[in-house]
User: Fold these one by one.
Assistant:
Number 1:
Amino acid sequence: MAQYSDERTDAERQRARAARRRAQAQSSGQVRKTGSSSSSETGSPDGQRRSSRVRRSRTAQNQATASAPTSQTREIQRQAIEQGQATALESSLKSGSALSSRRSSAESRTAQAAGQTEQPKTRAKARQKRTRIGTSRKKASQSPVGSTGAVGFESAARPGGSAKRIRDNSSLDPSRIPIIAAILAVAVLLVLAFFLLPRCSRNDDKPTIEPGQQVEVAIPDGAGGTSIAQILVDNGIISSTDEFFAEVQKQNADQSLKSGTYSLITGATASEVVKQLVTGPNSEAAKLTIIEGLTTAKTADVVQEVLGIPAADFLAQAKASNYVSDYEFLANVNDDSLEGFLYPKTYDFSGKEINADTVIRAMLDQYRIEVSKLDWESSEVMISQRYGIDFDDYDMLILASIVEKEAINSDDRTKVASVFLNRLSEGMRLQSDATMSIVTGGAVTADDLKIESPYNSYFNDGLPPTPICNPSLEAIQTTLNPADTNYFYFFIEGDQISEFSETFEGHNEVIEQVRESYASESGDAEESE
């Protein structure tokens, strides 16, 4: 009995220690397994070994939990709790005497385990729900293009079928509303500035043109309806492009508007303007008239006066080297001069971009057209046979320029050409006052004839180095077909030739007769006074 009493005493002591350990475990938040205390209470070796295995298993699980990802940690905790509950139940069955005292603690631990297990289950359900949403979105992204919401859902699905987490933006942070409103306001202001400011600036810069003013307007070649309308508005001819377009459509004139320079009245009706544009240019502003016998320098002055191109710019551009590649007749000119080739005519530069090069090319083009009708070669052969002189085209042009300056009418031109050819045939000097006009730029005086110059035909044999002016087509034709005469002299009285002579004596007689005539007229005038 004493031995049994000692054993019961030891057992009671063990149970007391086990109770203290459980109290400590509960206070520190650690979960103790029922099997451990049960084994201590019974004192059986199986219980102790099982308790040791449980402790080792729990230690391994704790280590795995510390290193595993969150989802795995929760699963390990759940398995550990379930294993601990199973061990506690087995121990309680074996130690029936302690079952009632431990039931309350087991139920509390079971409730705690159930609470810990509920959270992973809830999260698993949430993951399953998101997975279903992602799957549905992926299906939606694979739907036909016309299906509703296909584009939006496609961006929410990850490759491989996994769903991307979508942040809920349905609720807007109130603190961000003022910022968004400010951004929108700035954007609206920028748009308004882009469209309104250019118009305002154009209106401010546009000069005010009073109605009833005559304005010269140039419509360029190839200008479309929009460009034409804008030119008319800018010059105050019309007030609205819409009215212009409506009138063009009304008159069915969209293919009939002509380029050129127009003289129009500001404030005119769209109907009047369209009718004039269909009729064609009516302005003389872009028309350039070059008369026969002008030198290149005089031509430059006219160009400046009519077209506004500086004479210096024109003369700088009027070099044969600038055009010889395009005009073969310039190949053998002297002094890089275009003298003689700037064909005299009236030119209309309406609707064209006008500069020195444009004007010069127009004149060279016209020269080529006009002289292409002439038989230069036959005339040069005839002159060689009749006068024994070998002339080329350039020589003929030089002589034609002298004829242009000396003669007045067609009959005189053919005789003047024959005089110069006869003199050259006999080795005589031309002795033409006109050759010095290119030097003086105008009339030639007796003193001018004393100036040493290649163009002074009193001092030099043969022809001057270049033409002395730009001759007319008629002067060129008469030079190519001169009259067959024996004249070597002619006398000019006033603005016409009064007499041709074959000899110098006959020429002097003509001069004396003219002087006597003047003296007689002068005496009669004195007597009448």
Number 2:
Amino acid sequence: MKPPRFTAWLALGLLPFSLCAEEAPALQMPEATATEAEPSESSAPPLEEVSLDMQFTIEEQPLVEQVAPVEESAPAPQEEDEVLSTEPLTTSLPADLPGLFAERMKTIVMLEIFVQSETERARYLATGLVLDDEGTIAISGDALSMQFPPDWLRDIRLYIPDEDNDGYPATYIGANISTDVHYLRADKAVLEKLKPITSFEHAKARVGETLWGLGLGSEDTLFNPRLMASVLSVLGKYHLDYGFTLEPAAVVGAPIFNAKGQWVGLGVPSGGSAYLMMLQNRSHVVKLAKMGETDSFLDAGDFLKNVLPVVDKPEGVTGGWMGITDLQPLSRQVSLYFGLEKQGALVISEVVKNSPADKAELRSKDIITAVNGQPLKKVVPSALLPLWFNIYMADKKPKDTLTLSVLREEQPQVLSITLGKYPLLERNAPRQYLPRLGFTLREMTVHDGIVHRLFDAKIKGVVASFVKPNAPASNAEMKTLDRIMEIDGTEVTDYAQALELLEKIDKDLQKREAVLMIHRGTDTKVLHLQLN
């Protein structure tokens, strides 16, 4: 059994870890798309009517380098075995289920959020989980991208399942970038209809136990409450604890309970089932998963530890920043060479210049073996070790000092690093849409620099964060994340200067052409924008 797609509640389980303590930049930032994610009906329709989420699975093997063995390090401390409950296993639903179900349905709502981008207004629906008596509600970054600037989020409405009305107002209050969770607050008028999930006792689920969860119908049925149930098939201890049921037991974002009504987990996107697809006489392994419903859940205890406390800063919060990119676990063979088979170890791909890691004299290809004297946890499969490390680092703050034990060219070293303030995030970067030119100018971030293979914390510049189709910029073959180097022969120095130059061009109706020199990957191009 593989862990689920880590796309909700903990981006700790989603991000590529290019900047290890926090949200990491992907090598290419896709443009946001507006897909309206409505919950699935609890009763499965015929196969041909189901929308299938298909993913081709490609497994990459880490590069194995020939290295000499070093002195054996101390093994990672072993976690204490959990004490198994001696209570009889409950394999049926409780007789008082209707009452339990009605009370626990108050813990979830449906959120409607409109996202106003440069040229489009898109509608998103997401299941929200009530966290406290103040009406704080959490939704995942899987349902609403963390890349959206806070001022793009408009006209938020909250719907109580089975109520026939226009909903209630809600306010966006913040985001935790590390855990990939948005926080909203319900209007006071609806508080009496809500009940926080934290008011229920939580427990550990057991394999073979019958569990039940909450579902929501479609918008046409007023998001009517649905009971879902299944048997716990597997408990997986990965970077966090996850459970897997035989059939979908809840919708994504909704809680799951045991027969006593104790909260055992929160539905996360399913890993799906593997199937073999034949295309042009070639076979491909694909994953199929039901939309909305899930057979995977995050342990309630891990949810409480990693999602609370609530964040009330719209720009989002981040922890301390190291400035190292793309951590990779050692393969089993290399771990054996180094005598690290009983613990975890991570290889640093790149160190960002002028970052805390650079000042601490960390280097590319250093192997991190311990933090503050504690060996890294052994995680199975090892590909999930960066996720565990990101979770470990998530609560660290700027100015916190850590000691890192590393292996460098087979020699052990201990380095001290003082974490810094996390660099500017894309969601908070200044930007301006230029309608006549047909693109959005945005201040360059460290993440953008890494995309361009420019590893420098003090990087300055501007990029095109959005290119409108069939506009002068797109007709000149400008691409998203192109770095603008010159504007009509004038070298770009910073965002304010570039914006002043481009706004002058955008407003000059007599000007028929703008010439931009851009940097893309390893190429430099000159673009001629023909203006209307």
Number 3:
Amino acid sequence: MQNAVERQRRLGAFWHGVAFRLVAAISAALALALAVAAYAVWRQNALMSELDKLADQGLQRVLLIWEANENANDAARKMLILVTAPPEARAGAREESEAANRRLDSALTLLGASLGPDPDHPRLQTVLDARRRYAAAFQSLADDVRQGDLDAARDRLVLATDFELSMLLSALETLDRSEQHELELAMGALRGRQRDDLFVYAAMLVVVLLAGGGLAVWIWRSAARPLRAAAVTAQAFAQGDYSQRLASTRQDEIGDLTRALDLLADEVSRREARLIDLVETDALTGLAERDRFLRLASAVLSGAASGVAIVVVDLDRLGTINQLLGFEGGDAAVQMVATHLRTVVGPAAPIGRIGGGRFALTLEIRGPATPAADLMAWAEELQQRLEQRSIWREQAVDLHLTVGVAAVQGESSDAALLLKRAERALQQAQQQSRPAAVWSQALEDVRPSYLSLLSDLQRACEQGQIVAFLQPRIDVRTGAVVGAEALVRWRHPIRGWLPPSEFVPFAESAGRIGLITGEMLRQGIDAARRLRDAGYAVQVAVNLSAHDLRDPTLAKRIADHLADAGLSPQLLQLEVTESSLVDAGDEPIRRLRDLRALGVDLAIDDFGTGQTAISQLHRWPMQTVKIDRQFVRGVDGLPPSRRALLEAIVQLAKSMGMETTAEGVETSGEMRVVQQAGCSSAQGWLIARAMAVDEFEAWLRQNPAAAATRLSDATAA
């Protein structure tokens, strides 16, 4: 009996000892788990704070570099005004130029302070060295202007000051790229550390929880299930899933552990959501980027499979606004459109910025099966409501918009497909110069018809279906007809007369534009010869594409055409669009010099739309600048600053020995301003529309002003 009691006492002591050790082990394991969770929260807070600080510093540097770039561009505009300003305005222009340079210096000083205490920062030193060279060149230019030597000032502007300013802008761009690259590397390293830490925390928690559960499973069965749930949740956190919550009400160590994990999930998911929001939100407008917009639109479409449309709105001529008002003005225009979109469509409709000046929105339309005509009327009404005139820094800015619509018509469709269709409709509207267009299957069906047009193109050239129409160009001083531009038309045997917009862009993209150019050169030279034989000295202009400038046989073919026609090269003008020359390599420039060597006149077409650098204009072998119609349209009713811009372009061309032609003159008021600006010649509907060669010759005979165009006996001989 005594031995049994002793055995019972020893067994009780043993179990008490085992229980004590197990309780101690479990307590230690839970305490360690809580410590890991607390450390994880602290570590994640520290990493996110460091990431936020790094992002703020990077954003500040990008903004400072952008401000310096804008001030440099402003200084360039002020320099151009300085060298073209009349004597009475030079003092004010010089003060504005110097003020622009001071703002540039101030921006560079702030930029240097932002980049840190390193005085030998190589890329910053490059910027500062470029700034010192530009300051010296500008000072020399200002001295020339102060001394009244405007010719020397213009030469210095082209040969030195503009070059140094370009080098400064290039150095700023290099600094911007390098700073952004370093920022991305640093942020990537921090995110890598964060991911590594998460995996480490998860692994530590799994080990601790499994160890504690293994010790406690045969004593406290109730502890195993919550520990397993905690382990699963920790693994989900490590994989980026923060939706799971343990939500334990226990007041022991296990409860503390689960609450710590919930806190960790809340903090990490909140900060990750903030980073995703920054990535998927457009910084300029605060609107959704393309991917986020598609998700929002998908949510709308899933709730209403019909009666919904995706609308794409494009800000036309954003590049022109950037050129006239600077990129700050372009950004302001984009923000104006974004604000107006929110006002027109309301806060509930998803809106996104999917490109430079392009926006997308999801709207409900009237009825689940709206007819195409009603959809078109609805789209045009929306375009009229969106289009507006705004004021930016006391400057009126006309915001012209084009709208493309794709609607769900009783069928399910995903957002990406609808967005693609809306963009296709927008492209169609812009090609046809219409305010809006609605997608239909016909837009897709028309593509094979364009392919058939391209396959018919060679036959059209051989059968005389490609026809040159002539639009006259007059001397604005005398009214004499001095030239004509050859405009292409296609007399299709089935579709009738086709305008260039119906086939030229597709021929160009398919590499078949050379067929059209060859036919237009032949007809243009023949027209000039025919007019010469009729006694009229009319210089005929033919357009060349960027594709044509890559043809090494171009100059020889034109020389052969001229020789076969017995035509003087002075009666042929070749027009090249500014956009095809900007950033062109040396080969197109060599082609132009070969053409100039033939004696033909070379003209820059659509000048002002390609953001030409002055140094580029100087190196092109051109004799004529054709000012784009956007600088002429309605200029008589615009503020004096717009007229001054037209006059500055004319004076710049004159300083380089070039003639100027104003395109698209449609009213007598526009002609009056063009004459006052000093343009050499003009063309447009005010003078005459484009005509077939027979009609053009008859028009010359009936036009009294064409008498000055007639060849003298000596010239005819």
